[in-house]
Amino acid sequence: MLSIKELRRERKRLFGETAAHPYVTVIVLYLLMYAASVVFQIISVYLQVGSGKLSAAAMLFAAVLYIIYIMFLIWACLSMNWYCMRISRGKTPGDAFKMAFKNILGYTVYTVLYSLLCIAAVIVPFIIFIVLTAVHGNTFLIILFALAMLLVAVYMSLAFSLNPCCYYDRGDKSIKETVKSNFNVTKGHKPRILKTMLVYYIPMVVIYAVAVGCFIYLAFAIKQQRPAGGIMVGLALIMVAAFIGAAVYIVWMLPNVITDLCLIYNHITGYEPESITGESRESIVSEDEKAPDTQEDTEV
């Protein structure tokens, strides 16, 4: 399996060779999602304020608008993942946006299906945890089922950590078969995937912890009407710097971690670029199960 240094070296090489602009892409997609959120909120407020009590037609329109908004967010996330997927395979990354749009309906169904599967896996320990907490059950059992719920959630997250890659190589598979391929492709590789993700996510958690910690302290100090002093001013500056740093870090982190996961997926499935081998091998489950190189001509 590729090491962190090897992933970093390969990623930098691919960023240069494919003439990709991953950081600009992240910023643009975030701005688009923010703009879509603002538009959705404005229309929602207008429907509520303008009509007082929502009519059936207004409620239907709001529901349709919400579905469109959610699908737009799914398209944006899928586009970013496939942008990095194409980078990892030395292909033109800009085609990812069109490909994601053509596959948005199928990927939405796929997302709902594996999300329900993840919820179903966590629901049993969660219900037991809630019941034990409500009846003031044994503390050890409460902690045990809380840990069980956490472990199951982590396991399912890792099992589906490469889901955009699996859908990219879906080929003729059904949605159900594509969901199953997630378990096959991550089998035996979850610790490596977790390590790769932690390398990127731990710094983000630390930065956010500093920012939120400063915010909570300042909010408590203001509530207690403490006089402003050097410590509060310093904490305010640290908080602002931490939030700005977190935003910058996310813009840098997302394309890097996604591309690294795509490279891991390519390595697991034995994918070799056409420029090296003359042909592509993109098997998800076994060597004799072939999948087309892209889905550019496949509409779901």
List its traits.
77% helix, 300 residues, disordered C terminus, mainly alpha
Short structural summary:
With 300 residues, this protein is mostly helical. It has helices at residues 4-17, 22-51, 56-88, 96-102, 104-134, 139-159, 163-168, 175-186, 190-223, 230-269, 274-277.
Care to describe what's here?
Helix content is 77%, strand content 0%. It is an all-alpha fold. The longest helix has 40 residues, at 230-269. The two termini are 33 Å apart.
The portion of residues assigned to helices is: over 70%
Low-confidence stretches: 275-300
Number of beta strands: 0
Give the rounded overall mean pLDDT: 85
Strand content: under 5%
Q: State the shape.
A: globular
Q: What is the number of helical segments per DSSP (H or I, 4+ residues)? A: 11
Q: Between the first and last Cα atoms, what is the distance in angstroms?
A: 33 Å
Structural class: mainly alpha
**Would you list the SSEs in sequence order as H and E?**
HHHHHHHHHHH
Work out the radius of gyration. Answer: 23 Å
Major sheet summary line: none
